[in-house]
Amino acid sequence: VQLQASGGGLVQAGGSLRLSCAASTRTFSRYPLGWFRQAPGKEREFVAYITWTSDITYYADSVKGRFTISRDNAKNTVYLQMNSLKPEDTAVYYCAAQIWNSGSYYYTRSYDYWGQGTQVTVSS
């Protein structure tokens, strides 16, 4: 499975962006997906998670109420709608698929495939 993240860019505080993560195969639609982010000098951190049926989602406390994760399995794509962006949301955002690993959605080690990342910069 190859994952291609896109949709990043430069936006002012309070603005919105929608990130997309496109998978190279239809088998993607059967697996949970997560979004993580990594700011300069910091560790990669969990942002959001969605099961393959979209019946369960989880969010980091820092983005809850502002970000929404969704997926379109027919298009092999998962989305991250980001509203009310803040300068502290500035980071490289990565999508990841949990194929074989059954670990907690919260940890990077629980994911088997990663996209290349897309830069999000929020100016104040």
Please provide a written account of the structure.
The protein is an all-beta fold and 124 residues long. It is built from no helices and eleven strands. Strands 2, 4, 5, 6, 9, 10 and 11 form a seven-stranded mixed sheet that branches. It has a four-stranded antiparallel sheet with strand order 1-3-8-7, with no helix packed on it.
Radius of gyration, whole Å: 13 Å
What composes the largest sheet?
7 strands, mixed
Mean pLDDT: 95
- Sum up the overall morphology in one term: globular
N-to-C terminal Cα separation, in Å? Answer: 37 Å
- Quote the beta fraction: over 45%
What is the ordering of alpha helices and beta strands?
EEEEEEEEEEE
The total strand number stands at: 11
Given the structure, what is the number of helices?
Answer: 0
Structural class: mainly beta
Poorly predicted ranges: none
Q: State the helical fraction.
A: under 10%
In short, what is this structure?
The chain is built from no helices and eleven strands. The chain has 124 residues and is mainly β. Strands 2, 4, 5, 6, 9, 10 and 11 form a seven-stranded mixed sheet that branches. Strands 1-3-8-7 form a four-stranded antiparallel sheet, with no helix packed on it.
